[in-house]
Amino acid sequence: MSSAEEFKLQGNQAFVQKDFQKAAELFTKAIELDPSNAVYYSNRSGCWASLNNFEKALEDAEKCLANDPKFVRGYSRKGLALFKLDKVDEALEVVEQGLKIDPNNDQLKKDKASMESTLGSSMNDIMGLLNNPEIQKMMKENPQLATMLLQNPNLLQNPQMMQFMANMMANKGGANAQANPTTTTPPPQSQSTNFPDFNAQKPETKPEPKPQPKTESAPQPPKATPPPTDESEFAKTKTAGNNAYKEKKFEEAIKNYDKCIELNPNEMLVRNNKAACFIELKKYDDAHATLDAAIEKYKELSYKEKDPTHYAKLMARKGRAFFLQGKWDESIDAYNSSLLEDRVAAVEDQLREVKREKKKADELAYINPEIADKHRELGNDFFNKGDFGKAMSEYEEARRRNPKDARIYNNMAMCFIKMMKFNEALKEVEKALELDPKFVKAMLRKAVIHNFLKEYHKAIDTYKSVLEIEPENKEAQEGIRTTQMKISTSMGEMNDEERVKRAMADPQIQAIMSDPMVRIALEQMQSNSKNIPEYLSDRTLGPKIEKLIQAGIIRMG
After folding, report:
1. Which of 25, 52, 319, 367 could bond 334 through an S-S bridge, CB–CB 3.0 to 4.6 Å?
2. Of 167 and 66, more confident
3. Domains of the chain
4. Closest by alpha carbon to 263, among 212, 226, 306?
């Protein structure tokens, strides 16, 4: 038969998987076995809240606090339930009670800020209402109404209240509004005012408790007396262990922690520290054995002896050990269990780190160059048939299988060119050249894209880079001639604003334009065209001016 603690752990797992109904059933089984455990009621309250059943969530939160008034999470659970039931004032009072116990509790601080924000919004609604001339007139005639609203801001969200005020405005008086035959029977009157008591709750009818026959109380078993410990010796030994750990004397620290465990077997943190030593020594199996023994011991403790934050630390340590072993799924489960007991920002960060590493590992495990080649060839077949969409799908799968194959990115660039998506094509071809800077086919494709984008200066630069690798490359030689013809043709066309805008965004062009000598040369060329040949033949200025002509910044004609 499963123990209450085992049902709780199963419930935690179901909660992580967002199966809240199943989790609630498991926590119920835990409660049946141990109805005095506040944690079980707290967890089940969280399930009901996730299922939007806030009445049950409130009921369990109250049972939680009845069992342990110092269980801080119970105040958060109760506050949330009251807040969702539109009892904001009561919710805020509950949160304040929790903060008196733990003033630094982050969750309660967040709860308080959210509730105060809601109250502030309600007050703004009241002020807006009071600025209405009709309402102001009504307030003068019925001053009790303003007082009631200021004392109970939530009444603005009460349908009965809004209907009551509408009736008052329509009939210009509270008495007439209540006598209006079109309205339903007014709610019962409050003793302190003439206005309906909109906060009145229906009294719960509970059966009279049956008289119990007087019986002698059953004898209680004697409480187990904990083994006597020398606290001063324990503290001294623990300090010695901690100091040894800081000095990286892990074997010595383990010996001290073992002595601490002998003095007080119920102390969880020294067991956790011992596991940390084994992790530092890369003895992960010993670390897990230490932690598993601690967890079993924790389950044997009485409810009053258990501290959920200690259990959370044990599980976080297991998560770290699994992480260092590369056991991603086990690490994620352990960290999730830790966070269910105690929400710690550092543990949340560690969990995110595990998930990132798992994603990388999954991607690496998926890599298979042979399968990538098959998908790339299938993509080539679809490309040759003109089915660029299917070709792209195959290339993408090939890339996932082998992200370091420059040919795949080059082929994807060609697909984008065929689909007239030149910016996307340029990104893919640049990725190919990052992987293989001397990939001539990718360089020629890049030059083609620059030509489509009318970035003729970049196209010529790219063709020249090809010729540095392959001086006899005919495609590059022809590309330069073709691009120069396009530049000459563009001189007689109207000014291409898009081309100029794109050129001015180019860092190379920006650097040329910021050169003081170039600026002087441009001014003189503009004032006297006879100066143009002289500047073009200059070894320093000539290439820069030619680059501006290619980019369309300077137009010759």
Report:
1. 319
2. 66
3. 4-123 (1.25.40.10), 132-179 (no CATH), 233-366 (1.25.40.10), 438-491 (1.25.40), 498-557 (1.10.260.100)
4. 226
